[in-house]
Automatic annotation (TrEMBL):
This is Riboflavin biosynthesis protein. It comes from Reinekea thalattae. It catalyses: FMN + ATP + H(+) = FAD + diphosphate; riboflavin + ATP = FMN + ADP + H(+). It is an enzyme of class 2 (transferase). InterPro entries: Cyt_trans-like, FAD_synthase, Riboflavin_kinase, Riboflavin_kinase_bac, Riboflavin_kinase_bac/euk, Riboflavin_kinase_dom_sf, Rossmann-like_a/b/a_fold. The gene is ribF.
């Protein structure tokens, strides 16, 4: 899958869908599968258009919801679904100020060479959000190609949305969120040097400093990760480290039965079970005791769970 940003040289004739696709959950996956299938049937390039930053982050960064996935993780999932090209539009004042007509002409037609477009009933675009699916159908009627609704997707009669998944994660309902995501909720990042406190108390950890300003959830979790083709299990603290006065958001992972040097590696950590909330301890000895309890709890959970993605 190719990844590009504006300005683009005109693409080959393409089938296009547009959205934030945060988390690339099961509903998104159905949309992408329909896009890829239609593109192949019509001999078109399958193109997903997304934004960076996300529109809600640009318009009100303080009130924007926490992300489910970074741009890197989103791109990896879209590539796995068979998308030919991901186009990342910079959501800024210039893009925001384009009229609906300018957006269609400059982005969809001139840059993307769209021949088939799939958007949701609630999709809005252009200055003052005047563009919608009815506008697209009217404006593009002379071009004689399809503007298709994005289907809603339900599990157990529940419409899947990124908002619903954020709510589940915030409540620690990891298994229910996993059902809607299609896989365990995961976070990724590069392992960097920390303060070596885990190693000093006999519990070495891989420290991932996360790029997100806010997290969908925090606490201590039973986790797993594929490393060099092998799955390893462990326990992780997600969020700040109040016992050592560190307010930054870390994902600090202790893997069972792994002693390899992980510094510099990019890891994807799957969060399977929330074990407890973040706590502040009086001293490192108390923290060490609790970490051992967390390790035991995670091991018990994995032993009782027959299927872990």
């Amino acid at each position: 899958m190719r990844i590009s940003r504006l300005p683009l040289t005109q693409l080959a004739a393409s089938a296009v869908t547009i959205g934030s696709f945060d988390g690339v959950h099961l509903g998104h996956q159905k949309i992408i599968q329909q896009l890829v299938a239609s593109a192949k049937q019509k001999g078109l390039l399958s193109v997903v258009v997304t934004f960076e930053p996300l529109p809600r982050e640009y318009l009100n960064s303080k009130r924007a919801p926490a992300r489910l996935s970074s741009l890197v993780d989103k791109a990896q999932k879209l590539a796995q679904l068979g998308v030919d090209q991901l186009v990342v539009l910079p959501f800024n004042e210039r893009l925001r100020s384009l009229s609906a007509e300018q957006f269609v002409q400059q982005v969809l037609l001139d840059a993307l060479n769209a021949q088939w477009i799939q958007v949701g009933d609630d999709f809005r675009f252009g200055a003052d959000r005047k563009g919608n699916i009815d506008f697209l159908r009217h404006y593009l009627r002379p071009y004689d190609f399809d503007v298709v609704d994005m289907p809603s997707f339900c599990v157990d009669q529940e419409r899947i949305s990124s908002t619903l998944i954020r709510q589940l994660l915030a409540a620690g309902e990891m298994q229910q969120a996993e059902k809607y995501l299609g896989n365990a909720y995961s976070l990724s990042g590069r392992v960097i040097y920390g303060r070596q406190l885990g190693r000093n108390i006999g519990v070495p950890t891989a420290n991932l400093l996360l790029p997100h300003n806010r997290l969908t959830t925090d606490g201590v979790f039973a986790v797993s990760s594929m490393i060099d083709g092998q799955k390893y299990y462990g326990v992780a603290n997600l969020g700040p480290k109040p016992t050592v006065n560190d307010a930054r958001n870390w994902l600090e992972v202790h893997f069972f039965n792994l002693s390899a040097n992980l510094y510099g590696k990019r890891l994807c950590i799957q969060l399977h079970k929330r074990l407890r909330a973040i706590q502040t301890f009086d001293n490192l000895d108390a923290l060490k005791t609790q970490i051992q309890c967390d390790i035991n709890a995670a091991n018990r959970w994995f032993e009782q769970t027959t299927e872990v993605n």
